[in-house]
């Protein structure tokens, strides 16, 4: 039993040391702003199309599904409010995080993994460049910064998709839809949904960077790093969502 648990404890300890190195580099070393801007563009701008399509589909599906349910109780007028609240509080943040994790975590893992097995990271260290501070820190910080922006973007697209879904069933003006959609929305609905995506962004950047930076085993190891990054990041996002929902209920 102990032998089976040993790899887990070794991995956990190594991840904790990786986190420690990140915090030390972030607060005690020069921040690489150019690398940060580049990674923010890769993570943020590069994910706009995928996140937008996902948000549109979510809005249309929620609209059609909720409309059928509310029609049983004669409460179709609440449909815009249900769509907006569902998207802003829970569905928008988690779907955005999972979509970005699938694209970005694997990309970071594969990129850094390739640099590791081709000894490019070793070359940076030999050249007196702190490879960790140069490669890892900007990616994690960019993930933290990009996810809230992508979530807000997804929320707007999803709410717009909800309007399209309603038009399939009945006629309503866009002004009437938006007025009903924002009727019950307050700061207590917006802030928890946006703030928790910073945690999701950290998970994506951290897991992708950790798996890529620690890659071993040549080209096969690069593939494993990319795959493990996606699987672990998605799993941790779901676990974090459960915990953060409980915290948001207590404080908001």
Roughly how much helix do the residues carry, as a percent range? over 70%
What is the overall silhouette?
A: elongated
Spans of at least 5 consecutive residues with low confidence: none
Average pLDDT score: 90
Number of domains: 1
Structural class comes to mainly alpha
- Alpha-carbon distance between the two ends: 42 Å
Strand percentage, roughly? under 5%
Number of helices: 9
What does this structure look like?
By secondary structure, the chain is mostly helical. It has one domain (30-251). It has helices spanning 2-28, 33-43, 48-71, 79-117, 120-126, 131-169, 174-181, 187-213, 218-251. The protein is elongated, with a radius of gyration of 21 Å.
Annotation keywords:
252 residues, single chain, mainly alpha, elongated
In short:
The chain has 252 residues and is mostly helical.
Fold blueprint:
Blueprint (H helix, E strand, L loop, with lengths): L1 H27 L4 H11 L4 H24 L7 H39 L2 H7 L4 H39 L4 H8 L5 H27 L4 H34 L1
Helix pairs in contact: 1-6, 2-6, 3-4, 3-6, 4-6, 4-7, 4-8, 4-9, 6-8, 8-9
């Amino acid at each position: 039993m102990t032998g089976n648990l040993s790899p887990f404890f070794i991995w956990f300890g190594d991840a904790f040391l990786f986190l420690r190195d990140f915090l030390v580099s972030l607060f005690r070393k020069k921040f690489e702003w150019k690398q940060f801007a580049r990674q923010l563009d890769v993570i943020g701008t590069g994910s706009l199309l995928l996140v937008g399509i996902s948000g549109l589909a979510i809005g249309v599906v929620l609209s059609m599904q909720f409309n059928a349910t509310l029609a049983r109780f004669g409460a179709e007028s609440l449909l815009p409010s249900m769509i907006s609240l569902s998207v802003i509080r829970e569905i928008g943040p988690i779907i955005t995080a999972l979509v970005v994790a699938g694209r970005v975590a694997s990309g970071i893992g594969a990129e850094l993994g390739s640099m590791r097995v081709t000894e490019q990271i070793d070359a940076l260290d030999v050249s007196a460049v702190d490879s960790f501070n140069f490669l890892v820190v900007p990616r994690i910080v960019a993930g933290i910064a990009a996810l809230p922006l992508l979530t807000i973007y997804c929320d707007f697209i999803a709410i717009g998709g909800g309007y399209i879904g309603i038009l399939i069933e009945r006629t309503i003006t866009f002004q009437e839809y938006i007025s009903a959609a924002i009727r019950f929305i307050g700061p207590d609905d917006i802030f928890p949904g946006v703030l928790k995506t910073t945690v999701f962004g950290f998970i994506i950047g951290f897991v992708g960077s950790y798996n890529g930076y620690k890659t071993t085993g040549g080209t096969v190891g690069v593939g494993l790093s990319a795959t493990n990054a996606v699987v672990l990041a998605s799993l941790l996002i779901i676990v974090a969502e459960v915990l953060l929902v409980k915290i948001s209920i207590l404080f908001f």
